[in-house]
Structures are given as structure tokens and as C-alpha cells.
Hints:
Elements: E1 18-24, E2 29-35, E3 47-52, H1 58-79
Antiparallel strand pairs: 1-2, 2-3
Amino acid sequence: MTDGTIDWIDWREPGVPCVYVEYHGATAVLSVKIWENGFSAEQRPDYSTMLFLDNPNCMIEAGYLKEKLMGLLEERRGSDNGKDDSDHN
């Protein structure tokens, strides 16, 4: 949500970024896929990574991922300025 909280939205809604995250405990891997303009089965994600958490070098990619997610959040906040968000709280 634009206030930084996580809430259920329709992940198929066009124009709404879709972030898919999966954790694999046996291998300590965090997989992340981002569709910036909404999920589409016909399109590859705009961003995709696997963070091997037991590898110290994963922090470089984790930093990039954080920037990417913060950018998407800021875009959403900007696009929601002036709109009534009462139905999404």
C-alpha cells in the first residue's frame, strides 16, 4: 500500500506493480520477481533475482532490490496523491 503496509490487492490489476517473493529454507534463497506494470503471464518479469542469503555478496543485490521496491512505492504514492484511499486502509 502507499503507506508502506502490506495489504491484499488484485495482483492482476493492470498498471499495479506485482511483486512475487518466495523463500526456500533448505537452500536459504529468496527469489523475487517484479512486474512493474502488473502481472502478465505472457511477459517475463521486469526484474528477477535469487538472493543466496548465506553468501555475503548477496547484500549488493539486496541493496539494489531495496532501491527498486522503494522506487515502486514512491511511484505509487505519487500516483495516489489527491485520491481518496479510504477503501484501501
